[in-house]
Write a structure and sequence with these properties.
CATH architecture of the largest domain: 3-Layer(aba) Sandwich
Number of helices: 8
Order of helices and strands: EEEHEEHEHEEHHEHEHEEH
Helix content: 25-40%
CATH class of the largest domain: Alpha Beta
CATH superfamily of the largest domain: P-loop containing nucleotide triphosphate hydrolases
Largest sheet: 6 strands, mixed
Structural class: alpha/beta
Strand order of the largest sheet: 6-9-10-3-11-12
């Protein structure tokens, strides 16, 4: 595995602040081409295939530094896995990418254009959608109603009567296009299997022309059959050019889903490797070794304090 140059609502890493990057935050609606910024991503012809890139993303929560200058890139149609222990900074990084939180320092580029997110709506406007582990579906609503949640189609002008027939038709058309088998669109979501609910959540995100999907534990608590459904969906979306970032603590899931892996440790990306160039065993050994080093450093620090 090759190491790159220096990269849920609470702070992720119990570290004190250090000399973090002083790169100023991006300006809203900036149109600075990513290729004009030094470092942090592919150059030349490869730049055209990069849909998302970050430079020096830093985030602090008081005295705690959660992210320490993250440089990351995501290619078109690529599935990138984020690996790291609890508290490493994965969730904080994803919350910044989806506009839920703002970075203190650093820059974000989408398809070569610098962007600055002040809200989730800003991120959605440039094609970034997030599918959380709890899926954010309404269990008592039907499949097609969830697909159009908060984006319902209406008729009769100001009366706002729901156009249910059209929503059903478009829902069926879209699910067929992304090869999701959902026999009954009038079935309530709470009656679906875990894999089917995950598929509905992903379909709702991509129906809005999402270019980039952020997936939080997409295979959590699923059986083999349900996992196969989601893995096939991810594969099909990738073939259609949708790029995805996956957070999962199960290394076997990441190796089944992803093209490339980034390891985040103490708020930095310490490893960037293609899945084909490593193994579950090698990744496990890397994480265990890092944990042992952190444990030893903590014990030594406690020893110095006691003295």
């Amino acid at each position: 595995m090759s190491a790159p140059a220096p990269t849920p609502d609470a702070p992720d890493a119990p570290d004190a602040p250090d000399g973090a990057s002083t790169t100023p935050s991006a300006a809203r609606a900036s149109t600075t081409p990513a290729a004009d910024v030094a470092g942090g991503g592919p150059a030349g012809d490869a730049q055209a295939d990069v849909v998302l890139r970050t430079e020096g993303i830093t985030k602090r929560f008081g005295a705690v530094v959660a992210l320490r200058g993250i440089d990351m890139h995501l290619n078109r149609g690529e599935v990138l896995g984020l690996v790291g222990d609890n508290g490493a900074g994965k969730s904080t990084f994803v919350k910044i990418l989806c506009g839920f939180q703002r970075q203190d320092e650093g820059r974000i580029f989408v398809e070569g254009q610098e962007v600055d997110f002040h809200s989730v709506k800003d991120a959605r406007a440039v094609g970034i959608e997030t599918v959380y582990q709890d899926l954010a579906l309404v269990p008592q609503l039907t499949v097609y109603e969830n697909l159009f949640l908060n984006r319902e189609l209406t008729t009769l002008g100001k009366l706002g009567v729901l156009s249910r027939r059209r929503m059903r038709h478009l829902a069926r058309q879209y699910l067929d296009n992304i090869k999701v088998n959902m026999p009954d669109l009038d079935q309530e979501v709470e009656m679906l299997s875990g894999g089917q609910r995950q598929a509905v959540a992903v379909a709702r995100a991509t129906r809005m022309d999402a270019k980039i999907l952020l997936l939080d534990e997409p295979l959590a608590a699923m059986g083999a059959k349900e996992s196969a459904l989601i893995m096939e969906l991810v594969k099909d979306l990738s073939a259609q050019g949708v790029s995805m970032i996956v957070i999962d603590h199960n290394y076997a899931h990441l190796f089944a889903l992803c093209d490339r892996l980034n390891v985040i440790q103490q708020g930095k990306i310490t490893v960037d490797t293609r899945v084909a160039d490593t193994s579950v065993e090698e990744l496990t050994e890397l994480m265990v070794s890092a944990f042992r080093r952190q444990l030893q450093a903590g014990q030594e620090a406690l020893g110095e304090i006691s003295v």
